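Input structure tokens:
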């Protein structure tokens, strides 16, 4: 049964979240020997490991990483506002990741001094990463531009699915993605990479599976009349490593579960790569291409589905 554009838009949002949750217990394993040992107990299905093997932080299996949580907050804001509302998004991110939240742990303190006593890892709870800590400091300081101007990690790519799902096929899509990303990452290279990722995801939402997707997006980046041009678009054609790893899974493998498993076996920042892979496969197949058991094991799935349906319904009313 062929999927509709609405099915694929919802699939992109859910695919990203489910893949993020699947990889979360094995996020940030950089030691090859440790990774090999952990995988030996799990193969051929390393997803949703019952106990976290993350050497930096520990969360309950089925919960999201900080990437998945950022995507959730963005999805919630879009559902409530019906648009990218930077003021609303700023307030929601601060409320979700700021003081008094589960993210407010000593090691994650935005004001923690260099040279402070070394933390014992892994910490019991989620990890507040560099861009989120800078965002909190900027909000506290009353700055108009709240995004971190030096961070160029994968956060933008991991949380773009809700915005692309809402605006796919519309000329303002890339502008909306950029607005959402700069709230926490006000870095030009980060934005350029995220917009390149958004072009891929939009292509799949609009067209479904396409073996020529890479050629289509590279052609867009080379087009002098392209939407929302960035100074660094041509540099992005070379593709930064983390994004390149995620894109490899999308272009070379055939389905969501095998692509996520493959990227998990590479170690490192598995969840950031997995979330983009999940978004792209969900965008190609809709919900029917996402394993039922993976949806069931993603703790926030019912709420995510409700919000995704709300956002896509609002996009159809524009």
């Amino acid at each position: 049964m062929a999927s509709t554009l609405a099915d694929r838009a919802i699939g992109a949002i859910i695919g990203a979240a489910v893949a993020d949750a699947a990889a979360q217990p094995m996020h940030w394993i950089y030691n090859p020997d440790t990774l090999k040992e952990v995988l030996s107990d799990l193969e051929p299905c390393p997803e949703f490991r019952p106990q976290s093997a993350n050497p930096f932080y520990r969360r309950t299996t089925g919960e999201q990483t900080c990437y998945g949580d950022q995507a959730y907050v963005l999805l919630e804001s879009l559902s409530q506002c019906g648009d990218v509302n930077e003021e609303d998004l700023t307030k929601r991110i601060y409320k979700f990741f700021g003081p008094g939240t589960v993210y407010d742990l000593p090691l994650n303190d935005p004001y923690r001094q260099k040279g402070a006593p070394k933390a014992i890892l892994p910490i019991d709870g989620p990890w507040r990463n560099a861009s989120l800590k800078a965002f909190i400091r900027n909000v506290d300081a009353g700055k108009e531009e709240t995004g971190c101007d030096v961070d160029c990690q994968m956060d933008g790519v991991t949380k773009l699915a809700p915005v692309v799902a809402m605006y796919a096929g519309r000329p303002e899509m890339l502008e909306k993605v950029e607005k959402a990303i700069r709230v926490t990452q006000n870095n030009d290279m980060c934005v350029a990479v995220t917009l390149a990722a958004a072009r891929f995801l939009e292509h799949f939402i609009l067209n479904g599976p396409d073996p020529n997707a890479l050629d289509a997006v590279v052609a867009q980046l080379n087009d002098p009349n392209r939407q929302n041009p960035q100074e660094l678009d041509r540099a992005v054609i070379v593709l930064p490593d983390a994004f390149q790893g995620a894109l490899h899974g999308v272009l070379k493998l055939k389905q969501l579960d095998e692509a996520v498993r493959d990227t998990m076996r590479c170690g490192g920042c598995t969840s950031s790569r997995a979330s983009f892979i999940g978004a792209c496969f969900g965008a190609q197949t809709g919900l029917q291409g996402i394993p039922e058991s993976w949806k069931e094991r993603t703790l926030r799935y019912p709420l995510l589905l409700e919000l995704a349906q709300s956002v896509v319904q609002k996009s159809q009313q524009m």
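The longest helix spans residues 188-207. The two ends are 27 Å apart (CA to CA).
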